[in-house]
């Protein structure tokens, strides 16, 4: 025999009940020998509990809920069995049950006395109604079904709310009933039972699954099928981890560990009778019957994953006791656990420090408050004597647990687990590992649960690739080119580097767009243009932080002076940053150090390679020299791609202002060319080089030669500046001609020597390495102890959206490699 159990979500409405009936009919038509256990319609048990409490409180508001409850059940009969010969009889029986329920609630309203015994009886109306309706729908479909009230077969003690089953008597009842009713398909109420005196009881959390397991054990069933709304036991909660997928097979022990830590597809009491009789359990999806589901058995096949699943408990409180060695005494431990036993509190997790000075217990919040009061009463004298400190209650926590038999004796599992949390800035409050080695659990902050689940799931189940979640501000020349490059390389990088990109948010100066599941790279511009939200950097950062997604990277492609004010809190939220924006690291030295400190503190990356040389490896080369023990003696460079283009092109063929306009049109200059021609942009780059070299330098310490005539300096707008520049073409031509007469060319060069930094327009001849620069090339010359006779030269394009975007892209990939 096979036992089929259908959960509340599978019978939540008429359409779903019809679907379940069709599944059962298909089993019958195949000649299967089976019985069916059914839960109450989805949400109805909670409604029954709510109605009872409201009525017992003296409020008539329960009547409205009762009407809703009644109408839900009548709707099933009226929708699915209107043409059934027994239609009116079935409807009358449903109505009769609702009248009885109404009378019970009326009694609670009058007496204000809601006992566990009464609550169990009231809850029985959910399963009784659903099983009865399903049996009648099946008979209407010519399937020989018989309604079975499990209260007549499953015998328990009188521990209402979670009664203990008398296995011998129950098994005898089940065997006798089946023998007396051959050639029928039993449709059995789950969850409910009764005492030997016939008083209604319930089997506790997951009680319908337990009923299925009880019937399977009594009949030596070949398999139990638990039909729910997912394709089996998943590697993680699919509501929190979108990449979660079904597990093909798992052992009873793995399933119990998963269920203990929140996996809701199965409950430990369900497994025990099946485990004792070695009956396999298969988790099936009633909405996708053809899916294989998950097989739970004694000897499950191992798959390629070390971890079988990741479970979590979303709302946990932590009680901690500290007592300077007092807990080394066995009598104290006995008292502690005695208190919990008397209050019927079962912690999820218990951990004790090796010094035996402290012990921590994770439990449900409502239990934690009760436990705190009880423990403070139990240890009142010890607390007065300061042998035990006051009980500490830490709330708003969650538990994450990785589970798998294949974890046993495998080195490195804990390291990968903790490393994935640490790289995403998730702090561990408490950790514990079971002696079986099939479970590692940690307590973390509740707001980090989703982020932790996704980062750990990526490590153990998606190690073939990792996902980077990008939040991009600035989609102008650099930003749009970056998105183009990502789109162009996405497939290649997924296939070869195993990295996937999820563009979560985009913002320009006018609008911003958030899509947690990703913005399409095919039509991102159109989507952003249609977005409803105006750009608000404060809101953008707040929302990015609130999403709290694993492997998050903030990309600032702007030249905005204000965005850098958000950098500290972004880093503090454990979000890495990549930016070509020079404002942040060229602000005060104190702010520069704080950003680097925060990045180190939060174990994230703050990359700004493109600040100095666009796509050139200037800062990485400098850091490599210093980290390897070299000493920098001098740095010289043409650090501005725009100024390089301007002076490389200024050879007498065009007027100076025409070349500046061309550079502006090509996107080489900053939006305001004065930033380039004033030397301000070069100054920022030289300042960054100085700081990366180890100097505590401020911007005002850099000596900048002004190359602009007074009218250009005094211009108030970009338009006025460009006009003044055109009026000054003769001035610049005189400078060029003078240099040319001496066989030299003009180059705008930045120099750092010792603690001196200066920027000037210089005439250089053929012996100078900057003489042969062309296009928008930058050149940086490092003279060091190792490179004294022949300086190290880095040369290449120093401006343009394409190379700058490529530099940012490379940084994003470096961040990804670090996080993976």
Write the topology of this structure.
Blueprint: E1 2-6, H1 14-29, E2 34-38, H2 44-56, H3 62-80, H4 87-111, H5 116-140, E3 145-148, E4 155-156, H6 167-180, E5 185-189, E6 192-195, E7 200-202, H7 207-219, E8 223-228, E9 249-251, H8 252-260, H9 268-276, E10 281-285, E11 294-297, E12 309-322, H10 330-342, E13 349-352, E14 358-363, H11 365-378, H12 380-384, E15 392-403, H13 413-422, E16 428-433, E17 439-445, H14 449-461, E18 466-473, H15 477-496, E19 499-507, E20 511-514, H16 524-530, E21 533-534, H17 537-547, E22 552-556, H18 567-572, E23 576-578, H19 589-601, E24 606-607, H20 610-613, H21 618-627, E25 632-638, H22 641-649, H23 656-665, H24 674-677, H25 680-692, E26 702-704, H26 710-714, H27 718-727, H28 729-741, E27 745-753, E28 756-764, E29 777-784, E30 792-797, H29 801-819
Parallel strand pairs: 1-2, 1-8, 2-5, 3-5, 4-6, 8-10, 9-11, 18-19, 18-22, 22-23, 23-24, 26-28
Antiparallel strand pairs: 6-7, 10-11, 12-14, 12-15, 13-14, 15-17, 16-17, 19-20, 20-21, 25-27, 25-29, 27-28, 29-30
Helix pairs in contact: 1-3, 2-3, 2-4, 2-5, 3-4, 3-5, 4-5, 6-7, 7-9, 10-11, 13-14, 15-29, 22-23
Textual characterization of the structure:
The protein has 820 residues and is α/β, with parallel strands linked by helices. Helix content is 43%, strand content 21%. The protein has 29 helices and 30 strands. The strands form five sheets. Strands 3-5-2-1-8-10-11-9 form an eight-stranded mixed β-sheet, sandwiched between helices. The protein has a seven-stranded mixed β-sheet with strand order 21-20-19-18-22-23-24. It has a six-stranded antiparallel β-sheet with strand order 13-14-12-15-17-16. Helix 10 (330-342) packs across helix 11 (365-378). The longest helix is centred in the N-terminal third of the chain and has 25 residues, at 87-111. The radius of gyration is 36 Å and the shape is elongated. The mean pLDDT is 92.
